[in-house]
Amino acid sequence: MADTHRVLIVGGGFGGLYAAQALKRAPVSVTLIDKRNFHLFQPLLYQVATGSLSPGEIAAPIRAVLSKQKNTQVLLGDAVDIDPDTRRVHLRDGAEVEYDSLIVATGSQSSYFGHNDWARWAPALKTIEDATAIRHKIVAAFEAAERMTDPDERRAWLTFVIVGAGPTGVELAGALGEIANHSLKHDFRSIRPEDARILIVDSSPRVLPTYPEDLSQKAEKQLIRLNARVRNGLMVVGVDENGVTVKTKSGEEQHIHSHTVIWAAGVAISDFGRKLAERTRAETQRNGQINVAPDLTIPQYPNIYVVGDLAYVKRPDGRPLPGVAQVAMQGGAYAAHTIVKRLKGETNIKPFHYFDKGDLAVIGRAAAVANVFGVHLWGFPAWLVWLFIHLMYIVEFQSRLLVFVEWGFLYLTYSRGALLITGPAARELVTKKPAHLEAETQSTE
Ligand SMILES: Cc1cc2nc3c(=O)[nH]c(=O)nc-3n(C[C@H](O)[C@H](O)[C@H](O)COP(=O)(O)OP(=O)(O)OC[C@H]3O[C@@H](n4cnc5c(N)ncnc54)[C@H](O)[C@@H]3O)c2cc1C
Fold first, then answer.
1. Mean pLDDT confidence for 120-140
2. By residue range, what is the domain housing residue 285?
3. CATH code, 279
4. Which of 44-58, 102-116, 205-219 has the lowest mean pLDDT?
5. Which atom of ligand 1 is nearest to the CA of 39?
6. Which of 42, 89, 132, 334 to mutate to test the pocket of ligand 1 (most atoms within 8 A of CB)?
7. CATH number for the domain including 212?
8. Residues 261 and 277 in one domain
9. pLDDT per residue as tens digits for the range 158-179
10. Is the pTM of this model over 0.85?
């Protein structure tokens, strides 16, 4: 084993996991490091945020997924630094891991465009913890509205603002629309959940700006059906506990009074990605993505591959590849196969080619828009395609069946079993004085 080529993979998301699986039968020893012990199926995060799935159903322990892969060891660790010349990755706890070939797939994180203070009032959706925090926020808003007597405050609690009109924003708005119009419809006495205002704000001229224009229009129609409204051409210039301040194209500022703002705009690369770029002196984009060579390696470091959200790769027509799971999976598998080819002495390595299968966004119950191999679908047929593809890719067989049964039940009953407020959020809700009572207390002092 001493001379076996050592492949180190940092990140067990879509890119890292597919790289590891592609090396299953390769004559190499693989180490996969992730700071979480599970692989997260991010495309279903918003289902957790809106209470139709539980966290355990969209995550699988990486160790279990790779347990049959004898040449692979899984380590829990947070990569913080790298020495590309001595070929070592440093972990937060002080340990070092050596490699011969390295695949970095540490993905991206939410970006508030330099306004990190907005995160407090407008959580983003990236992790399991984010999804449960957003779920608490949504359910708590309906609870607060039910107790509110002041009409302005009640309206603010029933106003949900989603910043960002990309797939995440659109999918969240659709699911929120379902909750308000169907799941909670009969559960309250003072409020009508279907009166909830769901607003998507974005500076772009249309929703799903990277999709074909006809599908953007179909998506907007499906959102309107669920009482969600899109307000395009608005730049967010402020977020606080009372809502969002937006600026119109003409420079006029408007305030949207809301206690539930969700951030679905902007991504930046992971911290380790930033360190990697610094240590290898790689060129980066403004959002930090690393410009890689056509074989996904870092120029000057042919043994370091960067895949997934972290890599900046151009298509032949000059447009960059999108930050989607398929790009990461195909990139991970390509890097793995290229390492094996190079070990065999092959020098004629073909550049990475992304096989684009299309785009999909789901909008509530039984509606979606899809561009599959150039064929445009919407409504129920698009939703069936969406359902099929997502179930196919959920990593563990067990949870695939579970999710299928759960969705079937939800579809028939409109119920949302996971709309629970748990943990510290539950306690805070009944112990913290509501803002309007705080104000009253102060004025009588
Ligand atoms: C809410 C949401 C919805 C989405 N919906 C879709 C969709 O419908 N379709 C689609 O195709 N794509 C969707 N995406 C995008 C898709 O999930 C990403 O493009 C994909 O996950 C990128 O894969 P990756 O391997 O680059 O990174 P990730 O899958 O993010 O994996 C990165 C991994 O690296 C680990 N890591 C990070 N830093 C370190 C470190 N320092 N040390 C060790 N480990 C580390 C993380 O724990 C994580 O496991 C969605 C994303 C989000 C957030």
1. 91
2. 5-110+268-343
3. 3.50.50.60
4. 44-58
5. 49
6. 42
7. 3.50.50.100
8. no
9. 999 999 999 999 999 998 998 8
10. yes
Residue 351 domain-assigned (yes or no)? no
382-438 tens-digit pLDDT: 999 988 888 777 755 566 777 777 766 766 666 666 677 777 766 676 666 655 555
Asked whether the beta carbons of 327 and 334 are under 8 A apart, the reply is no
For this structure, is 146 an active site residue? no
The finding on whether 170 has its CB within 6 A of some atom of ligand 1 is no
Closest-CA residue, ligand 1 atom 31, reads: 13
Place of tokens 């119109």: 248
Active-site entry in 153, 171, 220, 406: 171
Please list the alpha-helical segments (H only) found in 62-181. Answer: 62-65, 128-147, 151-157, 167-178
Q: Which of 81, 106, 355 to mutate to test the pocket of ligand 1 (most atoms within 8 A of CB)?
A: 106
Distance 14 CA to ligand 1 centre (A): 6
Q: What is the pLDDT of residues 289-336, one digit of tens each?
A: 999 999 999 999 999 999 999 999 999 888 899 999 999 999 999 999
**pLDDT, tens digit (0-9, with 9 covering 90-100), for 10-22:** 999 999 999 999 9
Q: What is the pLDDT of residue 403?
A: 75
Is the Cβ atom of 273 under 6 angstroms away from ligand 1?
no
Does pLDDT of 25 surpass 90?
A: yes
Pocket of ligand 1 contains residue 125 by CB under 6 Å: yes
Return phi, psi of residue 137, to 5°: -65, -45
Q: How many domains does the chain have?
A: 2
d(CA 26, CA 228): 50
Residue 443 pLDDT: 46
In the prediction, which pLDDT does 411 show?
63
Decide: 356 in ligand 1 pocket, CB within 6 A. no
**Residues ≥6 apart with Cβ < 8 Å to 330:** 18, 352, 354, 355
d(CA 239, CA 131) in angstroms, rounded, equals 20
Q: Does ligand 1 come within 6 angstroms of the Cβ of 130?
A: no
pLDDT of residue 266: 83
Shared domain check, 211 and 282: no
Which stretches within 239-344 are classed as H helix?
271-280, 325-343
DSSP code per residue over 130-164: HHHHHHHHHHHHHHHHHH--SHHHHHHHTEEEEE-
Residue 14 near ligand 1, beta carbon < 6 Å = yes
Same domain, 258 and 151: yes
